[in-house]
Amino acid sequence: MNNRIIKIYTFIMAISATITIDAQYISSITAPDTTIAISSDTSDIAVKIANTITAADIKVHLDILASDEYEGRETGKEGNRKAAQYIANHYDQLGLPNIGDDGKFQKVAFTWSKWDEKSIYVNDNRYKYLWDFLAFPARNNGLDSLKTDEVHFIGYGIDDPAYSDYKKKDYRGKVVLFFDGEPKNKVGKYHITSSDVPSKWSKDINTKLRTAYDKGVALALIITPDIKEMLGRNRSRLLSPQMELGDKSERTVDLVNHAYISTTIAKDIWGKKEKKVLKARNKANKKGKAKQVKLSTKLDVKLQKGIKTLFGENVLGYVEGTDLKDEVVVVSAHFDHLGKRGDDIYNGADDNGSGTSAILDMAEAFSIAKKMNAGPRRSVLFLNVTGEEKGLLGSAYYADNPIFPLENTVVDVNVDMIGRVDEKYANNPNYIYVIGSDRLSTELHKINESVNQKYSQLMLDYTYNSEQDPNRYYYRSDHYNFAEKGIPAIFYFSGVHRDYHMTTDTPEKIMFDKMEKVTRLIFHTTWQLANQDKRIEVDVKK
Question: End-to-end distance of the chain based on CA atoms, in angstroms?
């Protein structure tokens, strides 16, 4: 494995149900014991049903879903609707019942917002959006036009008993300018907390923005030293229209209209009073005392907002259980992708045509078992969600509006990008990254490990399960909305590659033999979860 030292963990881990895990989740690699033969005895119903999952069947689905005809399956667009209909038709062909609010669909409303016009002029100098300033349409109410000859520098935009930039001042209808963060003294102690731990005013910018809104401020300009870095962190939210759950076309955002500005704009606003502004900031830091500076500046701002309500669908494939049918195992995968940009199509074969195709074939396997009167005991919901690329929106909607009560939802098994290999495993496709399996239930983790040893013998890599994972993958796919509700979740993922979120993520690059192996592992884990006598326990404290 690229000369890395791999620590091999035993499969049966003696973990007490009373252990509290505090950001110490497993992040190593489990290698299977290949001296033990993989179980292939078809008298085992799990083996017999798993064998119906094939690379050929998966390929049929994926070639269609990731074709140019589906135009990248962007949420709210025609290609996404075609994909939803294809998935629903497949479930119809399997004879699965209608359980949605519209057949096999759970309708989801989205509010789409973008800037129709965005400009900032300071003293007749025009500044460039995404270069000199940033603003998020979904977090603003919008300004058709704002012109003023004065801006008020107010330090840090804080109103706290320990320190206030608003004390005895009225900024209704005014433009205020402030720095991000909060004041701290020369030894690094924050004035508000009297410690080296920042207060809520640093941790959540909304605290400042709501305060300014409540005080009637017309516009807040937030001085941001590194606009490029902020753009990098929020590229997708800034370069594409923002989408939120629900019909919010009539909503008023309870945040002040605001923009993040570069120090270049700030200095133009300060003008000849730059030293006075910096002196005021230094006083706030040294003594914890606020001082405002009124700046005579010609300012012209337009943040004109466009809003549209769109509708999409989650697609529901339901296999009813037998004696434990009131308990539900959810198997999720998002079917949306990035759509088109001009004539360029982002086909999204791996992301997430692979996961979608995998659970379509799994649904067929479970329906075969049911027709054979062979289970499952618990009901299984194959949940195909939209809006993942817009911020995990489809799964968030389901988690807030579940078809089945969350208290009866045993687990979420999530599949997102399992059709390729990353650089680390370029020469060994016999692996899968596993994320989240031990975060709420140690039993879930052990089930997946034992099932893998018995039926699949893939390398199980937990690198991205680490709380210190800089990629934050645990928070970036649909299982997270279930985990947030206290439902154990396991996420299967084969890593990113050079075609990730590119037009080159196309079907001919999918490794269908690998997909067959991974999908059978996911099936076996799901089968165990759906059929064992007792539902898995939540035994890890968050």
Answer: 33
How many CB atoms are closer than 10 A to CB 322? 14
**Burial label, 340 (beta-carbon count in 10 A; 0-12, 13-18, 19+):** middle
Distance CA 378, CA 491 (A): 20
Tens-binned pLDDT, residue by residue, of the chain (542 aa): 223 222 223 232 333 333 333 447 999 999 999 999 999 999 999 999 999 999 999 999 999 999 999 999 999 999 999 999 999 999 999 999 999 999 999 999 999 899 999 999 999 999 999 999 999 999 999 999 999 999 999 999 999 999 999 998 999 999 999 999 999 998 989 999 999 999 999 999 999 999 999 999 999 999 998 999 999 888 878 887 888 898 888 889 999 999 999 999 999 999 999 999 999 999 999 999 999 999 999 999 999 999 999 889 999 999 999 999 999 999 999 999 999 999 999 999 999 999 999 999 999 999 999 999 998 999 999 999 999 999 899 999 999 999 999 999 999 999 999 999 999 999 999 999 999 999 999 999 999 999 999 999 999 999 999 999 999 999 999 999 999 999 999 999 999 999 999 999 999 999 999 999 999 999 999 999 999 999 999 999 87
**Cα–Cα distance measured from residue 312 to residue 339, given in angstroms and rounded to the nearest whole number:** 14
For residues 484 and 308, give the distance between their C-alpha atoms in angstroms, rounded to a whole number: 29
**In degrees to the nearest 10, what's the CA dihedral of 433, 438, 439, 442?**
160
- The answer to whether 39 and 455 are in contact (CB under 8 A) is yes
Question: DSSP for 429-490?
Answer: -SEEEEESTTTS-HHHHHHHHHHIIIII--EEE-GGGSTT-TT-GGGSSTHHHHHTTT--EE
| Six-digit token string for 46 | 């799990």
Instruction: Please give the Cα distance from 72 to 47 (Å, whole number).
Output: 35
> Which residues on adjacent β-strands are paired with residue 307?
113
Number of C-alpha atoms within 13 angstroms, CB side, residue 363? 32
Question: Residue 296 pairs with which residues in a beta bridge?
Answer: 150
Q: Which domains does the chain have, with CATH numbers?
A: 30-97+320-531 (3.40.630.10), 112-307 (3.50.30.30)
For tokens 């074969």, the residue is 349
Q: What whole-number distance in Å separates Cα of residue 515 and Cα of residue 521?
A: 10
d(CA 129, CA 276): 28
